[in-house]
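Following up on my earlier thread - several people asked me to post the actual chain instead of describing it. Fair enough. Here it is, all 300 residues.
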Amino acid sequence: MTHSNRQNQIFDELTVIDWSSASRPTVGKDSIWIVSKISDRTCLSNPPTRTQAGNEIDSVIRATNANHSRLIAIDVSLGLPSPFEEIIGASDTSWRGTWNLINSKVTDSPDNSNNRFLAGSSLNALLGQGRGPFWGHPNGRTYAELHATRPNFPWGNRSIPEFRLCEQLMRSKSLAIQSTWKLAYPGSVGGQFLMAVPWLTALKERHPQIKIWPFETGFGTRPQIGDIWVAEVWPSEFPRLFQHEVKDADQVVSVLSYLSECNSSGLMKELLHGPTDLPSAEIAQRVEGWPISPALSELQ
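Reply from S.P.:
Thanks for posting it. Predicted structure:
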């Protein structure tokens, strides 16, 4: 890397994670993949459980120079569509209130067994308006407040939308985006969200230098020395390299390559720009979240 590239860099190190809500140890397709870049060395791994993934990220963080900044890009939604945070009646109507509520409902074991469908049913029950907005569960199971099929949206008497603002923008351009309310079946990003929040919460407790972008950073483009920013990405929106036979592995490697090039060239700032209108920026930063996305940066 040239001296000029080092001057352009926003982050010193990069990590990309493809997450999973699997209920048992899993490797290969539809499992957790982690790729990290430390100096000029790139390491790809496929931990079979979320617990092992957490241990690996702990090791990556410990191996990072204390004066270096790192971006951890993970393929999960980090928030829910507003006004969910207001309807549940929590005293904290920010992302923290939503995360605290999820942490109180979700359990996850070292072998990946978890209660995400029961948690979704319990979250629906708090709204007191029938089976929704969370939906989807395996065949042969029954949950008091969770339908197997998608309910109608906008949902309930407060008209909860199906998609966050960032997702609405992407879908307006005919890009295929799944809903965070979806807990089962292909593209069950809601299940991944529920299983990521407890893990990220624990990770932040172990490593105080971690900040969730843009919730704790604003739509900033310059981390402090030693900061670790965790941000949402949608790997399917990044150009593929086709270097690995497993799609999930190829996607994290491809995202890392793209982000690395942007980081070196100074274009990373463009990916960190948020919504152009202030109301959307406030909602995204306070509760819904926003992804680092080449498609969104082009759409703005």
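The chain has a mean pLDDT of 92. That should answer part of your original question.
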